Amino acid sequence: MRRLSHPHICWTDNDGPRILGINPWITDFAAFNVWSRPVGLLACLDMLRNAGASVALLDCMDRTWEDVAWPTPGQYATGRYPKETLPLPPAMASMERRYSRYGLPHDHVRQALAALDPPPEAILVTSIMTYWYPGSLHMLDLAAELWPDVPRLLGGTYATLCADHARIHADADLIMQGSMEKRTNWDTLWNLLHRPAPPLPDNAGLGLALDLYNEPNYAPILGSRGCPFTCDYCASHALYPKFTQGEPDRIFASIASEYERGVRDFAFYDDALLVNPDQWLWPLLTRITEAGLDLRLHTPNAMHVRSLTRDVCHRLKQAGLHTVRLGLETTDFENRHDVKLTEQEWKDGANTLLEAGFDLDDIGVYILFGLPNQNPANVEDAIRHVQAFGFRPHLAHYTPIPGSPMFHEAVAASPYPLEQEPLFQNNSIWPCVPGGFNWEDARRWKSLLHGTG
Fold it and tell me: 90: burial class by Cβ within 10 Å (0-12, 13-18, 19+)?
């Protein structure tokens, strides 16, 4: 049950404290929606509701606001966001790029928040990328203006990995490092509400409050948190030190509920989807197939190629996998920064996908670009190698992430103050490429990706 407060922001019908979760705008040079959802925030709201709180969600990237003019949707519910051009941040004033705020119009958001009745008793603002923090800080300021006495908490990637920066710049009562299921974070939130902390609910961190969206056109699937691997360029261990996997019955129930609401596109958010698949993935896919759900599955986070056996590919194809993304990273197989992958394993996995009946247009392959001291010739070799298979190469632009093993190497290679200013961690500026981003090279790489260079 939900109590109407605003057409898109409704309190759930619980008697506990009212807690508003906010996913703020994206501030960047470019943004594209690839089944994006703030899963960390949705996990927090699910936990809080299960503990008795009344929760609501404002997602500034939510396409379901029918009174907003959105660009025409792309394939499988992906697409562009509305945007408003902003002045460049002072630290980036010398860059000849257009900087924008993406998502719902500012006036719509402010009016919706001001109309909340009753008002929140606590506010959770998330931060998905470190360099998107201006949107989070602005949202905190807006909340302070509307409800100066209501506790404001900042969580997410920026709060966790750039906590010192956030403590200086964010108008928040708590900078929440790590996930809500950490006992210190859980207890502190309830202390700010002047209430005793209830026990952590079952399934803490793996359930998602997806029903807070009105008439969604896609939904995430979260079967696990964290990752058992320690790739040099990834900060998964800093964000979620423990690798945990969910229960297939709970995950299927979430999918079935969204399917009943008309959702047909589901995106896996797991960092290690094919690790220990007997734990939850195989039972889940079996349930989907047996229930006859005519849905489309997508893997935007990429799958580990070495795990693509004939059985794996058959199960995925039968259950409805449409968008296949693979993590090749590089064809320099002797000098990798991720899980060791041999050339033979890559070829076997790629060929097995085709044998299972996946269309070439469905398969995209990520190649790392812009690593510290990377030889561009290796990137070109990888692009041509992927194209020789008939697959579509995608450049995965390197983001120097605090907490990742490679970050100190990135700091040494970059001309920008990566440690002091998270804005320069933005992969759009090619922070570790000599000379940084330039349009001529961008056009050249684009032509190579399309096979015309």
Answer: exposed
pLDDT-based confidence at residue 1 (cuts at 50, 70, 90): very low
Q: Helix count (H) and strand count (E) of the chain? A: 14, 20
Residue 370: both structure tokens together: 């812009």
Q: Are residues 179 and 256 in the same domain?
A: no
Angle 202-207-208 from CA coordinates, rounded to 5°: 150
- Asked if residue 208 is part of any domain, the answer here is no
DSSP symbols for 110-166: HHHHHT-SSPPSEEEE--SSGGGHHHHHHHHHHHHHH-TTS-EEE-SHHHHHSHHHH
- What's the sign of the alpha-carbon dihedral 431, 433, 436, 440? negative
pLDDT, tens digit (0-9, with 9 covering 90-100), for 74-115:
889 999 999 999 999 999 998 989 999 999 999 999 999 999
Angle between helices 439-449 and 376-388 (to 10 degrees): 30
Model confidence at 71, in pLDDT bands (50, 70, 90)?
confident
Same domain membership, residue 236 and residue 122:
no
Phi, psi of 91 (to 5 degrees): -65, -20
In a domain, 261, yes or no: yes
**Alpha-carbon span 413 to 367, nearest angstrom:** 20
Query: Using the 8-state DSSP alphabet, how is residue 89 labeled?
Result: P
Q: Are residues 299 and 419 in the same domain?
A: yes
Q: Average pLDDT over the chain, rounded to whole?
A: 92
Distance CA 52, CA 213 (A): 20
Opening angle at CA 208, ends 143 and 322, nearest 5: 120
Closest CA to 225 of 38, 40, 51, 41: 40
In the chain, the number of structural domains is 2
Q: Determine the Cα–Cα distance for residues 329 and 222; give it in Å rounded to an integer.
A: 24
Helix axes 343-355, 310-319, angle to 10 degrees: 40
Residues 230 and 132 in one domain: no
Tell me the three state secondary structure of residue 6.
Answer: strand
- Write out the two tokens for 198: 């209830």
Q: Looking at the chain, how many residues does it have? A: 453
- The CATH number covering residue 80 comes to 3.40.50.280
Query: Considering the domain boundaries, does residue 44 fall inside one?
Result: yes
The H-assigned helical ranges of 356-428 are: 376-388, 407-413
289-305 residue pLDDT tens: 999 999 999 999 989 88
Asked if residue 428 and residue 320 are part of one domain, the reply reads yes
Alpha-carbon distance of 193 to 196, in angstroms, equals: 9
- The residue segments making up the domain with residue 397 are 218-449
Question: To 5 degrees, how large is the angle CA 162–CA 434–CA 381?
Answer: 105
Bridge partners of 55, per DSSP, are 19
